[in-house]
């Protein structure tokens, strides 16, 4: 008996081809999962850099306000009435532009960029960022003051004492009176 060939051929993948395709897909997934921690770390570093830049901007605003406010009104840099649970110790920096060449000021900030603790105190438990303000060793003129501000994290690590921070942002602030 003679069999007639089918009118159409059925095509399919062999077991070897399916196994190779699954192996390639598994390898690609492993590579993607291996990149996931790097992506998360990069995102966290970006968030910390952004917060540090916001702290620099906030520091500039408060130092500028301190220089420009008339005598006796330096406490106006803090909101009146104060926000509950939101300490404002910027007035502790009042007049420090005259401390040229003397000790620096250190201010601490939380993860969200809110000021915490006292100026020049030890780092509070909720502190994540440290802002070190060093006033320019050149005496300020009647119209300009200059300060170097370094924001570093984590707060307990003091770069001036030989500690190595996870990251930092530096800016030179010049304020025209």
Count of separate DSSP helical elements: 1
Q: Point out poorly predicted stretches.
A: none
Q: What are the secondary-structure elements, in order, as H or E?
A: HEEEEE
Report how far the terminal alpha carbons are from each other: 109 Å
Main sheet overview: 5 strands, antiparallel
Strand order across the largest sheet: 2-1-3-4-5
The tally of strands reads: 5
Structural notes for this entry:
This protein has one domain (32-176). Helix content is 31%, strand content 19%. It is built from one helix and five strands, in the order αβββββ. It has one helix spanning 15-68; strands at residues 105-109, 115-116, 129-135, 144-153, 167-176. Strands 2-1-3-4-5 form a five-stranded antiparallel sheet, with helices on one face. A hairpin with a 5-residue loop joins strand 1 (105-109) and strand 2 (115-116). 18% of the residues are buried.
Walk me through the topology.
Layout: H1 15-68, E1 105-109, E2 115-116, E3 129-135, E4 144-153, E5 167-176
Antiparallel strand pairs: 1-2, 1-3, 3-4, 4-5
Question: Which short descriptors sum up this protein?
Answer:
177 residues; alpha+beta; 5 strands; 5-stranded antiparallel β-sheet; rod-shaped
Write a brief structural summary:
With 177 residues, the chain is α+β, with helices and mostly antiparallel strands. Helix content is 31%, strand content 19%.
